[in-house]
Amino acid sequence: QIDQYLSVLNELGAELPSGYTEVQKDAERLRTALTLHPLPNCPCHCDPMVENCVDNGKKVFIIDFEYAGNNDPMWDLGDLSVEGNFTQEQEYIFMTSYFGHEPTPFDVGRMVMYKAMCDLLWTLWGVVQHANNNPADDFWTYAVDRLNRCRTLMSSAEFPKHLSAVQRGPNE
């Protein structure tokens, strides 16, 4: 999807936020790590922002499936964590509930990789919206904020530990 958005932006002659190219180059190591021990694709929402979750007090309904498709299930977990601004404690509770057991370093690392990749993807989505003059929001600011959050995560002290766990695989 990132490559598709870059192609669209190239056709539009759109400007990328400052520093995007460097972050994308750095993110290649994430993309590579995620291919070393792939999980089976499964049906995913692919846009699990909190606005797409409706709680009626008894159940939570997920709506708006326009981006849904088969994907690595950790994409949805990473994206929901980013969109919900989860703390590490909330991520732990969420993942423990999802897996039915304590998440492994591989599980946590994979979710963290997808948090970064989600922000990178949604950066480009925001630039596409901006380039198409979508009046619904300030999509340039949205894109820059997403890129900055991605850059901050990837430069955090904990990030190399998560990347290493993904590179080592689930059986380490």
From TrEMBL:
Alphabetical list of PANTHER family matching this protein: CELL CYCLE REGULATOR CCRZ, PHOSPHOTRANSFERASE YTMP-RELATED
Span of domain Aminoglycoside phosphotransferase: 17-81
Alphabetical list of Gene3D superfamilies matching this protein: 3.90.1200.10
One Pfam family recorded for the sequence: APH
Name used for this protein in its record: Aminoglycoside phosphotransferase domain-containing protein
Record organism: marine metagenome
UniProt cross-references to InterPro entries, sorted A to Z: Aminoglycoside_PTrfase, CcrZ_PhaseVar_Mediator, Kinase-like_dom_sf
Listed SUPFAM superfamilies: Protein kinase-like (PK-like)
